[in-house]
Amino acid sequence: MLIAISDSADPRIEAYRAVRERDLVGREHRFVAEGEVVLRVLARQSRFIIESLLLAENRVESLSDLFESLPADVPVYTANRTVMDSIVGFPIHRGILAVARRAPQPPVAELLARLPERALVVGLVGLANHDNVGGIFRNAAAFGADAVLLDPETCDPLYRKAIRVSVGGALVVPFTRTASASTMLRALEEAQFDVIALSPSGKETLAELERSPRAALLLGAEGPGLPADLLARTRTVSIPMSGSFDSLNVATTSGIALHHLAGGGRAPLFAR
Amino acid sequence: MLIAISDSADPRIEAYRAVRERDLVGREHRFVAEGEVVLRVLARQSRFIIESLLLAENRVESLSDLFESLPADVPVYTANRTVMDSIVGFPIHRGILAVARRAPQPPVAELLARLPERALVVGLVGLANHDNVGGIFRNAAAFGADAVLLDPETCDPLYRKAIRVSVGGALVVPFTRTASASTMLRALEEAQFDVIALSPSGKETLAELERSPRAALLLGAEGPGLPADLLARTRTVSIPMSGSFDSLNVATTSGIALHHLAGGGRAPLFAR
Q: Any idea where the tRNA/rRNA methyltransferase SpoU type domain is (chains A, B) (predicted)?
């Protein structure tokens, strides 16, 4: 259902107004996705319902296959660049936005109970940076992780920028939030997960780690790392580095660890 | 030598004026480094000469150990935040800038000839994104790579943002530019490097790759990847991913591959 918008004050596109500020305050039951690649990933996920699209006029043709696959009552608003930028509050270079409904977040025990006998889960503790959370979801999707758990301090994976950095991975891998890092750990233990905490002071070396069928990888923020009480209760693993320069980005770290835990293509996780 | 600057038009801090625009046009024999961590890395590298510092007044005390170690004739300019932001042209949250002289870039054959019998080199082809190049240098430093080679399309590792993202890694790992990707490949072959080209269509799997004493890892941009003629002349290697989501960031990819090639802490590259 194509609807041309010529006035940036049009009430029908209320959900797109001042996107950047709304990102920051959270948007209840909705989120905003941006760009063609992300939109195509979103359209394939059954747990999110697309409420509407807002497209720059020159993007309509290249996306027609996609919005023709949407239910007929989903409005596809179109506007010229000037009107679109004025609605959103800054230049939307990609010219493609979608508003979708969030999926309900299941209790952690329920999410873990659903997973197969062999499963790989990522747990994030205190990760407040959207680039890092987006990057971790991209890696989680690429290496077939089954779920991501978030502690209360970790930022929202459905923040627009996090989705963009994840190239849609934040829409692919199921996630839920736990009441605390401790709750997360307890739920993983109860579901028989072998919990691996990455830390520069880890006792084992990643490359030598043999994984269990149910493996969970815990990651903390660069700098503070994972809390000491959590490290005391888990299997700690380090990634050895060149002595003089001991610094890895946490998203990169997740990629290295997930590549190893997923078996680098040798494990049955990957049908080859 | 502490020098208080109260006027943003003061000619002595010319090198700091409108940093962002100057980043883009290149700055001949100089570069700008930003932030405490990067500045401390810079001060340890003998191949770069620090010409001056510009510090927010409230940062002077915490850095006094550092600028006392500099030669006595290196000016340390200080300014309040308003003057500093006005000199630079945007808010410098970190309150710490340095201007340093670039090191000469040796011819590629000379750089490679200097390396030890067992060596790890990274070759970048068409990487125009400063975040990615910065991220790759961070990983190259973390995993002890001996050198990075750049083709003409790859961006400047000493661009302010690339240095920042590299957390100083761009100042640690020696690099040089080659006349073309072909020249790079030929130089590596002549120096007896086993050249490994990462590609989604690679014939070998990274996790199964046995490295030679002299190994070079070639990376291309996300999307286009490495040119076909280069792939045809090298050993191609892939990182298997979950079939439904085949997307890794190139800096993350470099981290995964360098972790493997460096032996994950088991190889003699790391004195443990």
A: 120-259
